[in-house]
Amino acid sequence: MAVILRDIAPPIREVSELGYAAVAVYSLLFESAHREWEYSRTKQNCPRDTGGTTTWSHKAIAETLKMGKAKVIQSTDMLLDAGFLQVVGRIASSKGSKHRIYRVIHPSEIKAQRAILSLFDDPPSMRNKRIESQRRSFSHNHEEAPTAFL
Description:
Helix 2 (20-44) packs across helix 4 (69-81) and helix 3 (58-65) crosses helix 4. It contains six helices and three strands, in the order ααβααββαα. The chain has a three-stranded antiparallel beta sheet with strand order 1-3-2. With 150 residues, it is mainly alpha-helical. The N and C termini lie far apart (48 Å). The longest helix has 25 residues, at 20-44.
């Protein structure tokens, strides 16, 4: 789904029901997704479809907003479960750790996103944690396998 966040106001009042930290995290991610589109437009003189995505790590969000990493993770999980964000993938950082690529759901599509989320048994935050733990155990097991044969 392509999302271009321009000429639209973020739904801050609705996000505020999730708490002050969620508002801060959402505002940063919304602005970042919007600026990604603006940056690509000025760099190539035509808009590139960035899909409303942003690649901030939880640590970077925490440092920028002067809050704890655990609070950032809790806030992103609440935003995922409420249909304001979506995880579309993971990307390796410069140090090799993986962090999530978030898509900010366009305000006009939040209702549709919530309808989709209601079809699943688990909320998105739980599914993402399960996926991340499976990937960690998979990569951990494959790293250890060659040394077991020595």
